[in-house]
Please model this.
Amino acid sequence: MAFYENVFIARQDISAQQVESLVEQFNEIVKAQGGEIKKVEMWGLRSLAYRVKKNRKGHYVLFNIEAPAAAMQELERNQRLNEDILRFLTVRVEELEDGPSAMLQSRARDDRGDRGDRGDRGPRGDRGDRGDRGPRRDRDAGIEGGLA
Model:
């Protein structure tokens, strides 16, 4: 059997319990076709990059699946027919990842406090250095110079 990753986006106006029932429904479909869902990750309600079927947000869910191709065809057919599913994507992978996906790792890791990648920015109080451009003109000098 092959390995697959399936991500689907459900409508924003359904509840989390309804998303869980969709997960259970899709799990039963895969099991009935001889496959197994190894991991389910609920990424939660997230903003979409653009409006999809009048929705600005969606519930994201990731499946890691080990199943035959027929099971994936049936899963995708059911996702296509379900009115609550906005989009879905299935990708065949060589092996399934252990641990949390990249989406959950980025949410769990909060490195906003450590901005060491910016390098040395110098002292904060020294804002007067304009390099070889010289000092700024006074605002009133622009009016007197005929720029008004």
User: Anything to note?
Assistant: The chain has a mean pLDDT of 84.
